[in-house]
Amino acid sequence: MSEFWLISAPGDKENLQALERLNTVTSKSNLSYNTKFAIPDFKVGTLDSLVSLSDELGKLDTFAESLIKRMAQSVVEVMEDAKGKVQENLLANGGLKEKMKCLKLDLTSFVTHFEWDMAKYPAKQPLPSVVDTLAKQLAQIETDLKGRTAAYSTLKATLDSLNQKAKANLFTRTLSDIVNKDDFVLDSEYLVTLLVIVPTQNYIQWQKTYESLSDMVVPRSTKLIFEDKEGGLFTVTLFRKVIDDFKARAKENKFTVREFYYDEKEITREREEMTRLLSAKKQQYGPLLRWLKVNFSEAFIAWVHIKALRVFVESVLRYGLPVNFQAVLLQPQKKSSIKRLREVLNSVFKHLDEVAAASMLDAAMDIPGLQLNNQDYFPYVYFRIDLSLLD
Fold first, then answer.
1. What is d(CA 149, CA 154) in angstroms, rounded to the nearest whole number?
2. What are the distances in angstroms from CA 96 to CA 77, 100, 117, 120, 359?
3. Helical packing angle, 264-319 and 47-78, nearest 10°
4. What value does the mean pLDDT take over residues 206-221?
């Protein structure tokens, strides 16, 4: 599963023994894979400041998760022709251990091998400063994401629109990629070449009748220049003064004259515009994908650090001072065992909060400083990490 439960319990002897019992039960029953989750000792400050930070971290957590999901979706949109390879581009930089520094880790490995980045987020700084650093980093990534993806999206939308016109039916599709100068009689005072849409089943009828649909149609002047599954686009040359009569007679026979004037400058402009847009998209593709990969990693790493901070703050608020708790990362092994795993956790830690263990709290209960509701309040500190970023 791509879901993790980040929990904590007090670090005294009784609760460390409870954690051991948890590991034993979950291991024997194959309910979850458990690992210790190391969190530094931060400068606590006042409890009032922790209450404020709890609220701020809750909002920052939501923002960070939303941001990395948007970035993951942007990778999907950029890699439109290689969507099967999206997951291998959603990676996190290696951890701090020497053997992992040069690696790009899949997200699961990063979470299970998490180490606090002391260089980027010094634990010696006051907690509000650490949170502020994370918030500013994520805000800058979001600003850059909007700018970079907006330009690419506009370019892609313009190309998609042109491609749709090229794939439309003969009545509406662009003709710049179909017609050639040689298909038309140009610069004639008397003659003009028209384009006529003929249903597939009427090809023979067209060949037999087009010369007689009106006076002054040039014999043997028709040519099929393009066709799709519904019909073909034929040229026909005639005298200008019979255009209206020819159109009316053609319509009676289920032939449709497509309004079109061959303008070589306009045709060239359309073709050059398509070439320019394709070139611009190709030029933007590489740098944008590289930026997304690097900054997705940065945002994801920041998000996991925020989870760690939330565990620290909520543990201090829940268990009190001095700081003494143990954080554990649980990875449920299968969806069908989640309910059983929750029951085991509540059983092992029910002594921490008998009321919560029994009833999971009344729906209206409000705990000052804790960003929790009755659905995710448990006797122990609990936060969920969901790596299903593309769902």
1. 8
2. 32, 7, 7, 11, 42
3. 150
4. 96
Q: Which value, to the nearest 10 degrees, does the dihedral of the CA atoms of residues 214, 216, 220, 222 take?
A: -60
Average pLDDT of the residues of the chain: 90
Burial-class residue 243 by CB neighbours within 10 Å (0-12, 13-18, 19+).
middle
Encode pLDDT of 241-273 as tens digits: 999 999 999 999 999 999 999 998 998 898 899
Tokens of 104: 């790009």
pLDDT at 288 over 90: yes
| Structure token digits, residue 341 | 């795993």
The whole-model pTM stands at: 0.79
CA–CA separation, 23 and 344 (whole Å): 10
Q: What three-state secondary structure class fits 115?
A: coil
Task: Give kind and range of the element (H or E) at residue 381.
Answer: strand 381-386
CB neighbours of residue 270 within 10 Å: 17
* CA pair distance 289, 314, nearest whole angstrom: 37
For 276-305, letters b (16+ CB in 10 Å) and e give ebeeebeebbeebbebbbebbbbbbbbbbb
Q: Is 160 exposed, middle or buried (0-12, 13-18, 19+ CB in 10 A)?
A: exposed
Task: Give the whole-angstrom CA distance, residue 296 versus residue 290.
Answer: 10
Quickly count helices (H) and strands (E) in the chain. Answer: 9, 10
DSSP structural state of residue 390: T
Two tokens, residue 376: 């995710």
Mean pLDDT of 376-384: 90
Q: State percent of the chain over pLDDT 90.
A: 75
φ, ψ of residue 174 to 5 degrees: the values are -70, 150
Question: How does DSSP assign 216-250, residue by residue?
Answer: TBPTT--EEEEE-SSEEEEEEEEEGGGHHHHHHHH
